[in-house]
Amino acid sequence: MSDKLFSTRDEPLASEDLDVCRRVHEALCSGLKIDRSGKEADRLGALIIELYRQGVHDENQLRLLAGGG
Question: What pLDDT is attached to residue 1?
Fold first, then answer.
């Protein structure tokens, strides 16, 4: 069995983390006129979470990097 260490990117997001991602997602969907129930919104959400997991925790920076800039 492997004793492989997991990176912090593999840890589950806490409620506060998800709140940040949700706010950014809602703001971008609204600003970019993206239907929040569509595939484009799903891809945007995945991108926001990936950026967050990579260490981008500032909401403004997340918006810019995810396409709101």
Answer: 44
